[in-house]
Specification:
- By secondary structure, the chain is mainly beta.
- Helices cover about 5% and strands about 60% of the residues.
- The protein contains 1 helix and 14 strands.
- The strands form 2 sheets. Strands 1-2-4-7-8-10-11-14 form an 8-stranded antiparallel barrel. A 4-stranded mixed beta sheet has the order 5-6-12-13, with no helix packed on it.
- The protein starts with a helix and ends with a strand.
- The mean pLDDT is about 85.
- InterPro entries: Beta-barrel_OMP_2.
- Keywords: Signal.
- Pfam families: OMP_b-brl_2.
Length: about 230
């Protein structure tokens, strides 16, 4: 899915650069969000700055005023959050707890370690534009609601001189449902967005280390750029 998302992203950019947009015939718009993501307080499980999110969504436009300046845009989408852990850490599930593990205790050298959470989402946005059409300034506020359907951890490491990748699928006590507030501002087909969760990534007090539950506010937030098929 990641390769498919990136391929679609570059195709969309090429379409806009050459001024030929067959997507304009679709009733509605397709959006690709690329952003850097983190938790509100990751001190218990620190993340690398390269942690990121990518999402693809389709939203249909309902005009709310005769001028066409105010619209309501519901839709459906897919999102993948990639949380890169610092200090060679990863997580594993044991009973009802998610344990923080040190990968360097069983691998010679950890190169990268991350957790990926995949969501199917329903975005809902209210938008204002200076006028209907592509050449308009846009402002949007709304929310999106997601269901986590798959998650896994991945560790790229070196063992006995060979570089290998270890992958572990599981829930890891992630919340099945999530909600985020969303804001956008932009011009034409480029927008900047911010998404802030009103649910946490992990269930309450689920993440532990050798000393017990860790101090962790896993409320996610993402800041990035949106490309659309306007």
């Amino acid at each position: 899915m990641k390769k498919l998302s990136l391929a679609f992203f570059f195709c969309l950019i090429s379409i806009h650069l050459f001024g030929q947009n067959p997507l304009s015939k679709i009733p509605g718009n397709i959006y690709i969000d690329l952003g850097l993501t983190n938790w509100a307080d990751d001190s218990g499980l620190p993340l690398e700055s390269q942690s990121r999110s990518i999402s693809i969504s389709y939203m249909y436009e309902f005009t709310l005023t005769s001028s066409g300046q105010f619209t309501f845009n519901p839709g459906i989408g897919y999102s993948a959050d990639n949380f890169f852990f610092k200090n060679g850490q990863t997580i594993g599930k044991s009973m009802d707890e998610t344990q923080i593990l040190d990968t360097n205790s069983f691998y010679d050298n950890t190169k990268k370690s991350k957790m990926v959470a995949n969501y199917v989402e329903i975005p809902l946005e209210f938008r204002f534009r200076t006028h209907p059409g592509k050449d308009a300034f846009r402002l949007a506020v709304g929310a999106k609601f997601g269901y986590m359907f798959a998650s896994h951890t991945k560790v790229k490491h070196e063992t006995n001189g060979d570089t290998r990748i270890s992958k572990d699928k599981g829930n890891f006590n992630l919340n099945d449902f999530r909600g985020q507030f969303v804001g956008r501002i932009g011009y034409k087909w480029i927008n900047f967005f911010c998404a802030y969760g009103f649910t946490e990534t992990f269930k309450e007090n689920a993440v532990v280390n050798t000393n017990g539950p860790v101090t962790l506010d896993s409320t996610p937030y993402t800041i990035g750029i949106t490309f659309s098929s306007f």
